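A favour, since you know our structure tokens better than I do. What I am after is a single protein written out in full by you. Could you add the entry underneath, on a fresh line?


***
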Amino acid sequence: RSVVDAARCAIEVQTGMIERNAGVAPERRIEFRIGAHLGDVIEEADGDLMGDGVNIAARLEGIGAPGAISMSEDFYRQLKGRLDAAVSDLGPKELKNIADPIRVYSLLVGVPAQATPTTAVERTPPKRRSWLAPLAAGIAALLILIAGTAWHFFGANRTASVVSNAPPPLAAQRLSIVVLPFANLSGDPAQDYLVDALTDELTTGIARIRDSFVIARNTAFTFKGKPVDAKTIGKDLGVRYVLEGSVQLGKDQVRVNAQLIDADSGAHLWAEQFDTLRADLLQTQDEIVTHLARAMEIQLPEAEAARLKRTPAGNPDAEDLALQCQAVIQRGGYLGEESDAGYRLCERALSIDPNNIRALTWLSAKSLYSVTRGLSAAPEGDLRRADELVSKALALDPNYARAHSLKGGILRAQGSLDAAIAEHERALALDPTLVVADEGLGQDYLFLGQFEKSLEFNDKAIRLSPHEPTLFLLYNNQAADYFGLKQYDQAIESARRAIAINPNNVPSAHATLVAALALTGHETEAREALQRYLALPVTDPRTIAAWKAYRKAGGVNERKDPRLLEMFDRGYEALRKAGMPEE
């Protein structure tokens, strides 16, 4: 049921075969090939397993070397950094009856990392010991297929290797976490099933976070109802973080408490309490899971960045730098001096590893946001750069939700709104907790003049992630929706919220505030708001003509919908009324 359980099984099988073959004449030895893949399977009524997951595992077994474990990239990604064993990257392989090439990694049991194989005649059997902790990652079923074949079938010229007797150590992975069963505070044991279902769904939601390593529910639930010591659990499970919480189910409301704990120190890193209505249990559960999973997507990189500051590595690798980059950018609001320092960390990451997907994606965001917020001196070049970076990230990992969301933003800036919607919907299909994709859909429908639908996505994003790093953009977009609907009081309120959070990075919110004040008879306040806007250190656009150019650069196609065109004409007239110059 987990990658690590499957890997442990495969390694122990191969270790057992090494022991069995010790002292056996080469021509009488039997060696196994093992193929391991992570994927969905279909279970038949008789227990048979079917599907692409099975087929890929079978093909991996078929191309494997005797005595080795052939792993798909999806499988190996969950173990990377946790194996002190020799793993070879065999590159993409064409597999029979499998449409796309699969990147394959090969592990030879008993050979430690960095070891140089030699041409010894015998292998020394390793000590029988399980050296993979009982960890889990992911929720899909796993297939390990084993084929036994006599040694002489492969030929007598095969090279053997000297094997170390010491079991390889395991280190806690960067974003490794266990979601402990949430406590039921309702006083009604009959409600346990609802709380357990919430814990299950939350485990699944957090597992979607890129490079996360999440303990499977079967292991996590062994701690249900027991006293929790985060440091002991962290050592037992080999994780860095523990998420625990409680649920109180009332008649009309659900109250949820959650806290993130550092398993090394036992320190509490983050805590939150929130209430939600209990009108529809399924909808309530989805809302709670999305809220908490999105919080973890923000907090885990933040915690890792803080860990690296406390114990800086002598030579940080690309992923360490990329995680620090992400944490800084999310704190800094994507643009500005603080965020620029974060982007430099991503550039350092790419200098070490040009294929670091996280760094590629965040640097794409830098170029895109400079265009969409009217701060780019060369919009076409920056947009092209953003597209190149995110396209490379998607080529390396077609299932990275954040990269799909950024691709949607780029397509919108290019005026391809239908394609942008498809990319944002793809991002949400891959990761329903990715609030920036909801934000992207809100902007897509805003630019199509569908203000009501846009407002739905913006309201949903604000409700599900009230501490979202891009909250100022969500309020900015919400203000534009209200302005489009001529609900000026709400537009003024939302614009003021956006400006209060981040006054320097929301020119549209300033313009919406000025225009809405002017159209509701608050001319003096409108002029004062305009002067405050023009006095900001970085303010662009400053004229009606510049605003029209800004809208075009941001991907607004005014011919798409008459309502959009009318909204902008109404806005430009209101800005003139408040005193903004034409040229």
Summary: Residues 60 and 313 are 36 Å apart (CA to CA). The first strand starts at residue 30 and ends at 38. The chain has 21 helices and 13 strands. Residues 115-142, 147-170 have pLDDT under 50 and may be disordered.
